[in-house]
Design brief:
Elements (H helix, E strand, L loop, with lengths): L5 E6 L6 H15 L4 E7 L2 E3 L4 H6 L2 E6 L13 E4 L1 H6 L1 H9 L21 H34 L16 H15 L1 H31 L3 H22 L5 H49 L1 H12 L6 H15 L4 H23 L6 H15 L7 H6 L1 H21 L20 H29 L14 H8 L29 E5 L4 H14 L6 H14 L8 E2 L2 E4 L6 E11 L9 E10 L5 H12 L3 H9 L3 H9 L1
Parallel strand pairs: 1-2, 1-4, 4-5, 6-9, 7-10, 8-10
Antiparallel strand pairs: 2-3, 9-10
Helix pairs in contact: 5-6, 5-7, 5-11, 7-8, 7-9, 8-9, 10-12, 10-15, 11-12, 12-13, 12-15, 12-16, 15-16, 17-20, 18-19
Length: 651
């Protein structure tokens, strides 16, 4: 049985994109650090790669990045970090650091571990429980809504009254589809209610939740009643578990599970729901009437609100609030509201594809690939593909997404477009009343966001002096990174040092004498002067001023500052006798033009003879490849002696 340094569980409300994006992010970050990890995913198809008890027992720590219940009680006794699934996508490194920290919170049965945000109060634990239980209900409800909605919509192919035996449009097959779809859609509220309760109180909560959900459905409370009923059912079962705790489990466990919890739970929670059904139904009816009125009187305001909600967190709780409202109205026969919601959800990922097409030089190779894939994701109503782009510059990019989504939604509402299915994107175009117009509106909104994103990315690239291949070394191949480090080598890197099989060893040009710690430099030019003097002192060059002049010339062509406090100054001159590498650690960081606008405290310098056989390109390429790995950078920064640094480069 394999042993893992870390184990993790990921899951989102839809179980489609976030779940697997978090898995990928955690696995890639662990790989960079040389750690082993196994990630259990909770998707719509079920649990993939389930964790065994032996794997759990042998793990050092656990990361739960999920918006749904993943049965965290099995991790009791281990350090557990619990966060929303989005945190697993955005900052996997931080989660791994916190999970492996000495003060990581130990999970106790029937409690909630502290979130990685540093929350310590019980209120934060309650908030996390409320959120994950709601998302658990939404996760199980969505497939039912989609199935019922699509089948009902297909029945309309035979006519809007095709299910009515008294109508001339009546068709027996269409009536059957409509009936099946209607029954399925009616399961929405009971399932939502039941699985909210299940996340709070396990199987006993599920039973009570279904019963309360049926009361909510028949009482006309809609999905609002399902949400309230779920929390009522869960709370009642938890209260019963507490009150019946004096009864010993050994003798009464079966009686509690089969008789006491379901009977008393349904009775108590059912009475509460019965009492609140009438006012809840009034609230639900009022809200739906208000939204229907806005569709006709204020389509611009409604589209603006829906667009902002759908593009604010890309599949998160705010996005889901708009989506749930659309599905609730759809269940009542209103297909107008869902049209605007779908348009607003489809636009952001398509916008990223447009942005990388408009300004490819401003994006890294990985970003460009992701943008192209997002054309497919967006067309199938998967908004989450926009998250990595939003995370790069959230203060500017997220508003750009909001503007485009709002435009698409407003145009959709103004044209009275109807989308009778709650998911599917362009797959359900045959069901849309004005399919071509709807696609055009979505593309207009996407183009608006795409242009804004391209402009923002271009401005950022220009500000940071980015090469045409990327905005930083992160995610680049060795050849792309060497192009950023040494522009003069771009024409030859395709044949020299272009593969990872290159055997040139950096230890050949680096010795412990060429590594100096705690150098006191006042600014960048002083640091370059001291590098040139070190080259002469170690017999690598004969004229410090000549070497310094070449350093300056190279900086004038384009800064050699990279990111994370590292610069790669290099000089080629006739006074340099042999290829060599210098590594200097500064006592205090100095200002240097870098990709991330941070000062520099580590210099990796290359000295190159005027006439060499191209070996320096191998060394540059190998260094560039090393600097694309966070694990290497962390070890370099943590090294305390020249020998540690020398060993690191040789390895």
């Amino acid at each position: 049985m394999a042993k893992y340094d870390l184990i993790a569980a990921t899951g989102c409300a839809t179980g489609i994109a976030h779940t697997y994006m978090a898995q990928e992010a955690l696995e890639q970050e662990a790989k960079k650090r040389g750690l082993t990890i196994k990630v259990e995913t909770h998707g719509q198809a079920g649990v993939d790669d389930p964790l065994t008890q032996e794997e759990i027992d042998n793990a050092k720590a656990v990361i739960v990045a999920a918006d749904i219940d993943v049965d965290a009680d099995r991790f009791a006794g281990l350090p557990v970090i619990m966060v929303p699934v989005a945190a697993g996508i955005k900052d996997p490194g931080k989660l791994i650091d916190q999970a492996l920290a000495k003060d990581a919170p130990i999970y106790k049965p029937n409690t909630k571990a502290k979130a990685a945000t540093g929350g310590k109060s019980s209120g934060e634990g309650l908030g996390h429980l409320v959120y994950t239980s709601l998302m658990n209900g939404v996760s199980h409800m969505l497939p039912v809504v989609v199935a019922g909605g699509v089948l009902t919509a297909i029945s309309f192919f035979w006519g809007i009254y095709s299910a009515d035996p008294k109508s001339g449009q009546y068709n027996a097959f269409a009536a059957m589809l409509n009936t099946i779809g209607g029954y399925t859609m009616n399961l929405m509220v009971p399932i939502l209610c039941a699985f909210i309760a299940e996340a709070i109180a396990k199987r006993s909560g599920l039973v009570v939740g279904f019963a309360v959900g049926m009361i909510a459905l028949n009482g006309g409370t809609g999905f609002l009643g399902g949400i309230v009923g779920g929390y009522v059912a869960g709370a009642v079962v938890i209260l019963l578990q507490h009150l019946l705790r004096p009864l010993p489990d050994k003798e009464f466990r079966g009686l509690k599970a089969i008789f006491l919890y379901p009977v008393l739970g349904v009775f108590i929670a059912g009475m509460i729901m019965w009492v609140i059904t009438k006012p809840m139904a009034g609230i639900n009816t009022g809200m739906m009437s208000f939204l229907k009125g806005m569709q006709n009187s204020d389509p611009i305001i409604l589209g603006l609100i829906v667009g902002i909600m759908c593009a604010s967190d890309f599949g998160g709780p705010i996005n889901k609030a708009a989506y749930l409202t659309g599905t609730a109205l759809l269940a009542q026969g209103n297909a107008f509201f869902m049209a605007g919601v779908s348009a607003a959800c489809i636009a952001p990922p398509i916008a990223t594809g447009i942005a990388v097409l408009l300004n490819p030089k401003a994006y890294s190779k990985d970003d460009r690939s992701a943008g192209y894939v997002n054309f497919l994701l967006g067309s199938t109503h998967i908004t989450e593909g926009a998250i990595p782009f939003a995370a790069k510059n959230p203060l500017l990019n997220i508003p750009s997404f909001m503007i485009g989504s709002a435009v698409a939604s407003i145009l959709t509402y103004m044209s009275k477009i109807q989308v009778p299915a709650p998911h599917g994107g362009f797959i359900i175009l045959p069901l849309v009343n004005h399919p071509i117009l709807w696609v055009v509106y979505i593309l207009i909104g996407s183009a608006v966001s795409g242009v804004l994103l391209a402009i923002i990315a271009g401005h950022s690239a220009k500000k940071h002096g980015v090469s045409q291949n990327s905005v930083s070394l992160a995610g680049l191949t060795g050849d792309e990174a060497v192009a950023a480090i040494a522009p003069q080598a771009q024409t030859t890197t395709t044949t020299v040092g272009a593969t990872d099989t290159d055997t040139t060893n950096l230890g050949d040009i680096l010795s412990s004498d060429n590594i100096v710690m705690d150098v006191n430099a006042t600014d960048r030019d002083d640091a370059l002067h001291q590098l040139a003097a070190l080259a002469v002192k170690n017999g690598i060059a004969s004229d410090a001023e000549a070497v310094y002049a070449k350093y300056q010339k190279r900086e004038a062509e384009g800064s050699t500052g990279m990111e994370q406090g590292i610069a790669i100054p290099h000089a080629q001159d006739a006074t340099i006798s042999r290829s060599a590498m210098l590594v200097v650690r500064l006592q205090k960081p100095v200002e240097w033009k870098t990709f991330d606008d941070q000062p520099v405290d580590t210099l990796i310098s290359f000295l190159i003879p005027e006439h060499d056989n191209g070996d320096h390109l191998h060394y540059l390429s190998n260094t560039a490849k090393l600097l694309t790995h966070q694990s290497f950078i962390k070890q370099l920064k943590a090294a305390k002696t020249p020998m540690q640094i020398l060993t690191l480069f040789k390895e």
